[in-house]
Amino acid sequence: MKNMKISLGETEQKIAKHIAKSRYKANRLNGNPRAIIGPQSSYTTDLEGAGSELAAAKVLNVWPDLETNHSPDHDLTFNNKTIDVKATRYENGKLLIAKNKLKKPCDYYMLMIGTFPNYRLAGFCKKEDVLCNEAIVDVGWGDSYGREQDQLQSLEDFLNENKS
């Protein structure tokens, strides 16, 4: 199912805000560069990232990575497959992946649409279907990898492909 809507409850919102603040502080203290595509602030990116990751974890019924003092290569693990959750507030937004992700790719990329605390699952994409020359796009912030929403797998297809 594409277009599944997920809202974070009050406690989940508090957790997401805590994770976002902690990530923001840790990234600034460690001098980590902004690795985002778009004009939004780093804190907004951290909040939307934490919120969308919690929403994605709810969809897949898995536990999210709640650590804030490291930069993991993936956000979720589902049946031994790594997933990097991407978020955009734009209803027609694309799945966008920074080119440096090619160094340590995840098995899948998952796109969540919305703004904190309400999201919509847009779909999934296998790494080989997005981390390729045919998927290079420039949405005004330099080259990145990208796919349109209609090019993404549905939740059902993802689950069928990744049965335990």
Keyword list:
164 residues; 30% helix; single chain; 3-stranded antiparallel β-sheet
Runs in which pLDDT lies below 50 for 5 or more consecutive residues are none
Class of secondary structure makeup: alpha+beta
β-strand amount: 25-35%
Outline the biggest β-sheet: 5 strands, mixed
What would you say this structure looks like, in words?
With 164 residues, the protein is an alpha+beta fold. It has one domain (4-161). It is built from four helices and eight strands. It has helices spanning 10-29, 42-60, 127-130, 155-161; strands spanning 4-7, 76-78, 81-88, 95-98, 108-115, 118-126, 136-138, 143-147. The strands form two sheets. A five-stranded mixed beta sheet has the order 1-6-5-3-2. Strands 4-8-7 form a three-stranded antiparallel beta sheet, with no helix packed on it. Helix 1 (10-29) packs across helix 2. The longest helix is centred in the N-terminal third of the chain and has 20 residues, at 10-29. The chain is globular, with a radius of gyration of 15 Å. The mean pLDDT is 89.
